[in-house]
Write a structure and sequence with these properties.
The chain has about 375 residues and is mostly beta strands. It has a single domain, classed as Neuraminidase (6 Propeller), CATH 2.120.10. Helix content is about 5%, strand content about 35%. The chain contains one helix and 24 strands. A four-stranded antiparallel β-sheet has the order 1-24-23-22, with no helix packed on it. Strands 2-3-4-5 form a four-stranded antiparallel β-sheet, with no helix packed on it.
Length: about 375
């Protein structure tokens, strides 16, 4: 705890630069950081308003760390948690693969239940059906399934009809499975993919669905591409579908030019945008700004009290995993009170996935210097 407090104090000392309040004085900070001082031209100040003061409140949060990296997390029908961090040992041909971990005490302790030699690791999605079947979604749109809690897997039991990827799958009351994927590339608009399965994920049908165009894009760099990746989506009680996906830094937030060197692509400007559908995913609204520059890997969770949670990565200081809340079903987000779930020594951290336990507490897995699990409590709603 002492070391953690020291880290917090150091971070706050870096971020807490108070605005000059005396009339007639201008801030003296440089207009733009020197990107060349950061690895891959990432900047610790992308997405950070340096004319602010941060106020911190520390709360206890037990955590576990494994070797490995990015993973996914689900809560089984019996209450067990299943996580799939990346195996620190690559496969025989260098392929990245996952380890399957299980917790029976709400994320406090974990046991390895399997280390499949060919279950893809790193970026992937994980879902659990009402009967306990686990579905694993890899980045190429391949589905693997396990019917015994992750002990054994049928690798590649299904293939999505498009090379789309989604971080979650939803099961409807009639048993239909729905997956909203996103396919990006060198184009000026995203392509969302609506996929459905009526046989438990064994076979899938899919189609491209339109997204309203017109989102402002900054194209003044060599690669000139508008990528869309790593979507997380959910159904809301009012019937809307809400989807967040990672947008490359070619998109503009306000009047601020994306923070990257003109001759090189880096990830400091990547962020999340939101789009919604009111007709079951057949049509989607124009994507709008969501998180700030340097805040990708967003994952949406509908909470028991009706609020929405988004856990995401900080590619700016303080590096690590963070979260924000919405009390109006995603229309606005409390970006003035981010929750810091863990710190990392470099910008290469994040990919958080969160689940809520029956008692209301949260469990989040995220990647830092290893694969982390943290159990934490939500702040109370503003009207409580």
């Amino acid at each position: 705890m002492c070391l953690y407090r020291i880290v917090m104090i150091v971070i706050v000392s870096v971020l807490a630069l108070e605005a000059w309040a005396q009339q007639g004085l201008e801030p003296v900070l440089p207009e733009e950081p020197d990107y060349s001082k950061y690895a891959s031209k990432m900047t610790g100040f992308a997405g950070v308003n340096r004319q602010q003061v941060s106020y911190w409140e520390l709360k206890p949060a037990p955590r576990t760390r494994w070797p490995g990296y990015k993973g996914a997390l689900v809560r089984m029908p019996n209450g067990d948690l299943i996580a799939t961090p990346m195996n620190p040992e690559a496969g025989p041909e260098g392929q990245l693969r996952a380890i399957v971990q299980r917790s029976q005490d709400g994320g406090l302790t974990w046991e390895e239940v399997a280390a499949p030699p060919d279950l893809p690791g790193k970026e992937h999605g994980l879902a659990v059906l009402a009967d306990g079947t686990l579905l694993h979604i890899d980045y190429g749109g391949r589905i693997s399934r396990s019917e015994d809690g992750g002990k054994t897997w049928e690798i590649g039991s299904a293939q999505l009809p498009f090379s789309a990827f989604s971080r979650n799958i939803e099961e409807r009351e009639d048993g239909t499975l729905v997956l909203v994927g996103v396919r990006g590339g060198p184009r000026t608009a995203e392509q969302l993919i609506l996929c459905t399965s009526k046989d438990g994920g064994r076979t899938w049908e899919g189609k491209e669905v339109p997204v309203e165009a017109g989102y402002p894009v900054f194209m003044d760099y060599s690669n000139a591409r508008v990528m869309a990746e790593e979507p997380s989506w959910l159904s809301l009680p009012d019937g809307r579908l809400l989807l967040a996906f990672r947008a490359e830094q070619s998109r503009i937030i306000g009047d601020e030019v994306p923070p990257f060197a003109r001759d090189y692509y880096g990830e400091a400007g990547d962020h999340m945008v939101l789009t919604e559908s009111t007709d079951g995913g057949e049509h989607w609204s124009m994507p709008k700004n969501f998180t700030n520059y340097g805040e990708p890997h967003g994952y949406l969770t509908l909470l028991q009290d009706g609020r929405l949670l988004c856990t995401y990565a900080n590619y700016h200081l303080p590096f690590g995993a963070a979260a924000i809340l919405s009390e109006d079903r995603g229309k606005t987000w409390d970006t003035d009170h981010p929750i810091l779930l863990g710190v990392a020594p470099t910008a290469y951290a994040g990919y958080p996935t969160s689940v809520q336990l029956s008692d209301g507490t949260m469990v989040t897995t995220w990647a830092g210097n290893g694969a982390h699990i943290v159990r934490w409590s939500l702040p109370k709603p503003s009207d409580s």
